[in-house]
Write a structure and sequence with these properties.
The complex is a heterotrimer of chains A (265), B (277) and C (289). Chain B is built from eleven helices and no strands. By secondary structure, chain B is mostly helical. In chain C, the strands form two sheets. In chain C, strands 6-7-8-3-9-10-11 form a seven-stranded mixed sheet, with helices on both faces. Chain C has a four-stranded antiparallel sheet with strand order 2-1-4-5, with helices on one face. The radius of gyration of chain C is 20 Å and the shape is globular. The chains are: A alpha/beta (265), B mainly alpha (277), C alpha/beta (289).
Chain lengths: 265, 277, 289
């Protein structure tokens, strides 16, 4: 059953140089419990698409359906609560002047989750669920490493008890070792909480290991979509092959795969 | 806090500022006890000691009607500080609200609010104050009102610029995705990030407000005699230069110390609070 | 062949409010003439400050405490006066940074900036000669319409185009050493791959040595002849690229390698926590010139 459906989504911006077609007639289904990767380079429209899913940007035309209900851009708190975001940049996503706990608590206060007296406890549980010590809630973001901040960002989103997480390049600002740990955490959380992910990234090696399905975007168009296996073994679109061919790799096996794809194009 | 003290200690000039400001505030608060002639803040006349140069009895000399200049300067600090605090206590919040809403909301709110600010900014400040004082009675309250009216738009501009750039930060997006209200985002999320700059500006502005208020009374538009005011004291004494030099030099120095102190302290605060202009 | 750049026992600390904060704990590194060497590590490992010391920039920072020798072309960079160090930059030593678009000055045309670069080497170079040399260099980085690019401003060009311009400028004065600090990280993957290949071929043709600073193991593997792995201010492993990648021996290098997701899809790796082994002594595969 599809949790999220995008029907003929179009987003056009006006600019002095004329109309910019950021998203051109995109239709997509995201099934309950899956991880759908949205892959594209700059200008592919992937961030615009995410903003429309989150309801912070109104589409020019088309529909966003969640649990078979059409969401208007002006969403009710309950509709908002079920779709949450994890951002790319852990430096800017937390307010430097507020404690980590206050940032995580915002969703609880906004949606009235838990009794007021219990909320700090819920915040601490949310921090522990992402592998951070409970006493970190009193710290300022500046005292945290990039990886810890990103975990706080995940805790903040999860505290709202969402069904769908939009992950916008959640690990691309992190170091390799930290990235690997955060990716594992995301995978575990998805399994244990039955979450659904829309994973936006340009990093195909990450996609290969975390996504169930992949949608490839170029200049606002959906150029190809399929299961992760299909996309990486039999990519149909020229653009997909080019993207896979550009991935910097470390293993001979990977090079062989890349070369094979390059030959078939 | 420890970090703040370290930075200040590594920065002798701002330490000088803190000490000067502390002296000024101390003098103002304890004027009735420190002043050798506490009654001289009013309409006292003592012609036996009129227009005397500095001596053991009167460290800074006496004015034309025989009042102790040192005592009057201490009392004048009271007036200056009250004026500065009141002006900034009104101007800063008003300007901040304008700037925050314009900067965060953008669109129509921004257009309307910032055009109002522009109108005020387009009138030369001293001219505006002089015009107002011409219409109103020249009293302390009206002087404060006039200075406040010309001061708040600068806070609106400052906060607007910060809020506009903070609006693009990820934490604002995060709050919007969660669905927090405009008031929460503007006042709880963005405002704390504007505070260091606002506080720094307020400190720097204390000095400037004192100068402007002194300028107004120098022109005879501010605080009226017999209430002691540094600006009117300088104005009065200027007519008797160079013979009775103490009449202008000491009030002038008093202004200098206060303005200098607040400025140095403001610069130090800017470093402690990590504000970049 | 003798070393073009030789760093030995380099220590760096920053004097802060709470004492000295040590960043480099005695690293040694050599680059031969025309050799492509990568320094790979995570953020905060000390790789970028190393580049700034080689460029002679950190020596001018008052809070920096530097010891050890940095020899470039036989001369100790730390012992030079600031003027001599500045004279090296942009002539015998040049650099490419992360974001090409912000590295170029938005107020001047590419052509004007190119002329400035060329005149650092030869102040008497005439306008025509500059134009000719710039056109030739842009041709070498596969820019097909050099005249349009020379008359354009950086913001009118794409990121990939600016990156090519940066490469052309960096190599225009035939430097002996090129420092590339995370080049092209700000660019799209496909553009980054193209420009890296281009840069690799070009430095090979010119015989330019490169110190390539990166956090990306895949990129390093494709670019460098030899690799140094740096962790918290210590070099933990070094060797020819092939040897190091096929047989990583240091615990930290192994952890780093295992953490890279593979496009063949081996699943998300289990990453070891930071252990004492990460601080084990340096392992060298040899191959130093």
């Amino acid at each position: 059953m599809s949790l999220l459906s995008l029907e003929n989504l179009i987003k056009t911006f006006d600019s002095p140089a004329g109309k910019i077609h950021a998203v051109r007639d995109v239709s997509l289904e995201v099934t309950q419990g899956e991880c759908l990767a949205i892959v594209g380079e700059s200008g592919s429209g992937k961030t615009t698409l995410a903003n429309m899913i989150l309801g912070i940007l109104a589409q020019t035309s088309g529909n966003v359906l969640f649990n078979d209900t059409v969401l208007s851009p002006k969403r009710t708190p309950d509709q908002r609560r079920h779709i949450q975001l994890v951002q790319q940049n852990p430096l800017s996503s937390l307010n430097p002047k507020r404690s980590v706990g206050a940032s995580v608590r915002l969703g609880l206060d906004t949606y009235g989750i838990g009794a007021r007296a219990d909320r700090w406890q819920i915040v601490e549980q949310a921090l522990e669920a992402v592998g951070l010590p409970a006493n970190m809630r009193k710290r300022a973001p500046a005292a945290l490493s990039g990886g810890q901040r990103q975990r706080v960002g995940i805790a903040r989103a999860l505290a709202c008890e969402p069904e769908l997480l939009v992950l916008d390049e959640p690990t691309s600002a992190l170091d390799v070792l930290v990235q690997a740990r955060v990716l594992r955490l995301l995978n575990e959380l998805r399994a244990s909480r039955g979450l659904t992910y829309v994973f936006i990234t340009h990093d195909l090696a990450v996609v290969r290991n975390i996504a169930d399905r992949v949608a490839v975007f170029q200049s606002g168009r959906l150029v190809e979509s399929g299961t992760t296996e299909q996309i990486f073994t039999q990519p149909q679109a020229e653009y997909t092959r080019k993207l896979i061919g550009a991935v910097p790799v470390v293993d001979p096996d990977e090079m062989a795969l890349r070369d094979k794809l390059a030959e078939s194009s | 806090m420890i970090r703040a003290i370290r930075i200040l200690a590594a920065n002798p000039l701002s330490l000088v500022g803190v000490i000067l400001v502390a002296l000024v505030v101390f003098a103002a608060i304890f004027a009735p006890w420190i002043a050798p002639f506490p009654t001289h803040n009013g309409a006292v006349v003592d012609f036996a000691f009129a227009n005397k140069p500095p001596s053991a009895r009167n460290w800074m000399g006496t004015d034309l009607v025989g009042r102790d200049l040192f005592s009057r300067i201490l009392y004048a600090y009271q007036i200056s500080l009250v004026l500065g605090v009141v002006v900034l206590a009104i101007a800063a919040p008003v300007g901040t609200i304008f700037g925050l809403l314009a900067g965060y909301l953008g669109g129509w709110a921004e257009a309307i609010l910032m055009r109002i600010v522009d109108v005020f900014l387009s009138i030369p400040p001293l001219v505006l104050a002089i015009a107002m004082m011409g219409v109103l009675e020249p009293t302390l309250t009206n002087a404060m009102l006039a200075v406040t009216v010309m001061w708040w738009p600068w806070y609106a501009r400052l906060v607007y610029a910060i809020a506009r750039s903070e609006r693009e930060e990820g934490y604002v997006l995060a709050a919007e995705v969660i669905g927090a209200g405009t008031a929460h985002i503007a006042f709880r999320e963005i405002l704390p990030n504007c505070l260091p700059a606002i506080i720094t500006k307020m400190t720097l502005d204390m000095g400037f407000v004192i100068i402007i208020a002194s300028s107004l009374s120098f022109l005879g538009l501010g605080v009226q005699p017999p209430t002691p005011d540094l600006g009117s004291m300088v104005a009065e004494g200027a007519r008797y230069l160079p013979d009775s030099w103490w009449l202008t030099v000491f009030p002038g120095l008093a202004i200098l110390i206060a303005v200098f102190g607040f400025n140095l302290m403001g610069d130090g605060l800017r470093e402690v609070l990590g504000v970049d202009e | 062949m003798s070393a073009l750049l030789s760093i030995s026992d380099l220590h760096l600390g920053f004097k802060g409010l709470s004492g000295i904060n040590n960043v480099l704990h005695g690293i040694s590194l050599n680059i031969a003439q025309g050799e492509r060497v990568a320094l790979v590590g995570e953020s905060g490992s000390g790789k970028s400050v190393t580049a700034r010391i080689v460029l002679g920039l950190l020596q001018e920072t008052r809070s920096a405490r530097i010891s050890g020798a940095v020899k470039f072309d036989g001369n100790d960079i730390s012992a030079m006066n600031p003027k001599a160090r500045a004279a090296l930059r942009g002539t015998d030593m040049s650099m490419i940074f992360q974001d090409p678009t912000s590295s170029l000055n938005p107020a001047f045309t590419i052509g004007r900036q190119f002329t400035e670069v060329l005149r650092r080497r030869d102040p008497s170079m005439g306008a025509d000669a500059c134009q000719e040399r710039a056109t030739k260099m842009l041709g070498e980085v596969s820019i097909l319409d050099p005249n349009r690019v020379l008359n354009a401003y950086a913001f009118q060009l794409s990121g990939g185009m600016n990156q090519r311009v940066m490469i052309a400028m960096a190599l225009a004065n035939r430097p002996k050493l090129l420092l590339a600090d995370e080049p092209g990280t700000a660019l799209d993957v496909s553009v980054q791959a193209q420009t890296l290949t281009l840069m690799r071929n070009l430095v090979a043709d010119h015989g330019t040595a490169v110190l390539f600073i990166s956090h990306n193991l895949g990129v390093v593997r494709e670019f460098a002849d030899r690799v140094y792995v740096i962790y918290r201010g210590n070099i933990v492993e070094d060797g020819p690229t092939q040897a190091l990648f096929s047989d990583p021996r240091h615990a930290y290098t192994r952890a780093l390698m295992s953490a890279v997701p593979r496009i063949t899809g081996a699943g998300l790796p289990e990453v070891p926590e930071v252990s004492e082994d990460f601080f084990a002594p340096q392992i060298s595969h040899g191959g130093v010139a």
